[in-house]
Design goal:
538 residues, Serine Threonine Protein Phosphatase 5, Tetratricopeptide repeat
Length: 538
Amino acid sequence: FGKFARRHRTTFFATSFALAALILGLVGTSWGLVSTNRARREVEASLSEARRQERIANQINAFLNLDVLAQADPRANPGDITVRDAVANASERLGDRFLDEPLVRAGILYSLGDTLLTLADFELAESHLKDAFELRRKTLGMDHKDTIRAASSLAIAYRYLGKIDAAIELNQRALAACRKTLPADDPEALAFINNLASLYSDQGRHAEALAASEQVADAMRRAAPGTPDLVGCLVNLSADYRSNQRDADALRVLSEAADICQRHLPSKHPYVSYVAQSQGVIHLFDGRFAEAERLFRAALSLRREVFPEDHPQILTSETNLALALLDAERPAEAEALLRHVYATRQRQNGDEHDLTLYARELICRALCESGHPREAIEHGEAALATRRRVFGEDHSTTVACRRQLAEACCADRQYEVAEPLFRKCLDTLSPVDKSPGAEYRQALAGMAKLLLDTDRADEAESLLRAHVENTETPAEKSWRQCVLEATYGTALHRLGRLAEAERILASAHERLREKIGDDHSRVAAIREELKALRGIPG
C-alpha cells in the first residue's frame, strides 16, 4: 500500500509566495501595499489549502492503516488473510463514514478501487471508482487532476467489464480536461490517448487505433526514451500494426522495445513479459509455433511471479500458450489450460464478456481437434448465440465464432449446417478494395474444404482462384495462405488439371514445410496429395 501515501503528499508554497511579495514591495509604496496584501492573501489561501490537503491525506491514511493494513496483524487476525479479503473487509467498514467529508471519502474509495483493479475484482472496483469519480467531479470539478485520475481508473474498470462505449466516453472527457491544463506531450495526456487506442482496437476501429498509438509512441520517444512507459507504448503500437496487417513494422517496434528492456529494465519487470508475449504472437501467426510457445511460456512464468493468481495478464498468457499448442496440434494440453481460463473469466467478467466467450470458442476448437465434435458444437452454439445478442450479427468476433462453429459442424459431418455458416462469414468479411484478412482466409479455407468433402471440386476451384493468384510474393506468404493454396491445388487435382495442381501443391508443400515443420499434419496431407497425383504408392 505504499502508493496510497505517495498519492496524497502535501505541498507547501509559502516560501515562493513570500519571496514574490518581497520583490513586489520594491516597485513602489502604493502598488507595493496592494501587492503585499494580495500576496499575503495568496499565502494564507495556499497555507489553508495545504493544511486542508494534509488533513484529508491524514484521514485517508489513517483509515487505510487502521482498516486495511491492521488486518494483517496476527494478534487481530490469527489466521491468514489475503489482500483481497482485507480490501473487501475495509469496503464494508467504510459504510456511511465520511459522508460530510466528500474528498476524504473519495480518496478512500479511489485507493480501494484502484487496488481492487490490480486484484481483478472489477465489479467492486467499478462501484468504488465510480463513487470516487462522482464525488471528486462534484467537489473539485472535471478539470482537477484528482478527478482525472479517478476517471482513468474507472475507465480501466469499464474496459475489463466489457463496457467499451462507456470507457471511451470517459477517456475522451478526461483527455479534454487534461488538454486544458497540460501540454500536448504530457505523460498523463498521452496515457489517455494510449487508452483510447486500446479501446478503439477493442471495437475493431484499427486505423484509428494505429493513428493514436503512433502519436503516443512518437511523443514518448522524445519525452521518455529508455523508460518502461515507452516500452508499453511500443508494445501497444506493435499490436495495432498487426491489426492493420503490417507485421514487419510490428516486429521492428518490438525489437526496439526489447532493446530498451535489455538495456534499462530489471529482468523481472512486467514489461519484459509484454514484449515477449507480443513477439510470440507474431511468431505464432507466421507459423513458428515452437518459438511462439517458448516466448509464451517465458511470459507466463514471469507474470506468475509478478501478478496475483488469476490476474487477467496471467489469463492472457495462458490463452496465448493454448493457441500455440493448438496450432502445434496438441489440443489436449490446450484444452486443460483453456478450461481454467474460461472458468476464471466467467467468475471475473461474467458469461457475456468478450474474453469469456473467446475462451469458450477456443475450447470448441480444442474439442473439435481432439475428436469430440459434438461437445465442441455445444460450446460453439452457446457462444455464437451470446455473441449475436451482445455484439451483433456482423461484429468481427461474432464472425470468428460463427466460423469456428462451422468447422466443428464439418468435423461432425454436418455439412448442411456448416455451409450457411461459412457463407455468412464470407459475405460479412468479403474484401472490397483491400486484401483479405486472416479471418477471411480461414473462412475461405473452411468453405473450400467443405466443398471438396462434398465432391464439389469445381465450386472449390472457382471460390479459391482469385485468392491464390497475385497475393504476395512467395517469401511474404503466411502459413495460412500456403494452406489455402494447397487446398486450391487439391481442387485442381480432383478436376484433372494435373500439371497446374502439381506445381501449386509442390510450391505450397515446400514453403509450408519451412514454416511449420515437416511433421505437421497439414504438411503431411499435402505430401500425400502429391504422392497420389504422381502415382506414387502410399
